[in-house]
Amino acid sequence: MRDESDCARFLSAVTGNKIDGFVPYAWQSEWLDASANHNELMVRAANRVGKTATAAAAVVMHLTGIYPKWYRGRKFDRPTTVWCAGVTNESTRDIIQSQLLGPTGEGISTGLIPRRLIRGTPSMRQAGVRNCIERFEVEHVAGGNSVCSLKVFEMGAEKFQGAACDVVWLDEEPADFAIYTESLTRTLSTGGLVFVTFTPLRGHSKLVEHFAVGGPGRYMKTATWDDAPHLDEAQKRRMLESYPKHERDARTKGMPKLGEGGVFAHLIEECIIPPCALGNHWTKLKGIDFGIDHPHAGVAIAHTRTDGDVIYVYADYRRKGASVADHCEWLNSFDRPIPIAWPHDGENRQAHSGKTLAQLYRDCGANMLGKSARYPSGVGEKERGGAQPIEPVVTEVLERMGSGRLKIFSTCTALIEEMRDLHRKDGKIVAVRDDCWKALSYAIMMKRYATTASYGLGRPNFPARPIHSARI
Fold first, then answer.
1. What total of structural domains would you count in the chain?
2. What is the pLDDT of residues 357-415, one digit of tens each?
3. pTM given for the model
4. Could you give the strand order of the β-sheet that contains 283-289, starting from the edge strand earlier in sequence?
5. What's the mean pLDDT when you consider all of the chain?
6. 156 and 21, same domain (yes or no)
7. Which of 209, 289, 377, 386 falls 20 to 30 Å from 56 in CA-CA distance?
8. Considering only CA atoms, which of 439, 437, 435, 432 is closest in space to residue 203?
9. What CATH code is carried by the domain that includes residue 288?
10. With contact defined as beta carbons under 8 Å apart, do 29 and 2 qualify?
């Protein structure tokens, strides 16, 4: 919780009398502070949780140079150039312009930026829509004026070319991904920031994928109705009933609107728990999905075989464009003796070394199982290697979710996001942004090989046989 008196002083400085105090919710302060180490920041959120107000407050900070003491994000010690853009002229005027300068008809002294800091007369856009401001200047505390331009996605990506910017804020998602890439290009020479705040009604778009797969400098925060205490239960019930069913997860949880339906979306929230102590007698296993043309991913699970048959997912990892050694650094950083389940493509030999991919991981100290992930055999049958059908493990996960026998630590954010988003098309699961999910599926397939950490000490590539014969 931020110091309330400090927040009140900040809002008094930048908003005049409109807001008496500002205490950001936890997710808002985390997102604002993340700009210290990230230049691409997304709020993928439910409706009415405060995503636009949060980005607007950030824009005001960077235009004025007035930063509250609690703020730990990026700071500019000079006047800035800022672009803010919405979907249409009307929405840009009614949302962004209203937040920064005040609602239409109330002048330009009732928004987040106080009238005393606005220099000159804002220029108007000739767009056939009344009262649309195109450009205005704001005094910066370091001396000189910051410049803010208001744009619209309707202009097309070409209108987002041109001069360098320090901050670009896109409120809602542009239909053309090129608008985002052009905005990002504007900040390259300045080392600036790009904000995106939206409710994902376009589903699994290129922009959603760009942030979902992660990468250096990218930060995504998801905010649901549960993260917005200002919405009371009566409001939420009333709003929920007004939304079409296929939009409800997007509008209430910030989850991309799905095609034929989510695989786990209706159950995943019930599985998320705060991190807790794991019993020393519980067996553990890690699962990985090799990142060849997509991110490498890993998870770690603990299995309570004799205490309710519950699986706890207690760690996850996802990284793109790194080496085997980099991935093994995570694998070996905790519970190193426990075995690692891996997919059949780990048996492929690499042209540069002649070794299998699984062997390259072993050479880096990873305790890989002696064979690729596969389902247990039936009576009198031999286990089959190679590619495995996915539906049996999906069925088990659904059964465990429904019976409370799958728990996922809230710190496993990459896995949770993927399982929230996983959906079907034409009856089949869409294999996109599913790296951690695949790693989990391999771990669950091979849970019969899980061991306690002490049991695996000194036994490289152990075990060669399952510890017990429980079927998946």
1. 2
2. 899 999 999 999 999 999 887 645 677 888 888 888 888 888 888 888 999 999 999 99
3. 0.58
4. 272-273, 406-409, 310-319, 296-304, 283-289, 340-341
5. 84
6. yes
7. 209
8. 432
9. 3.30.420.280
10. yes
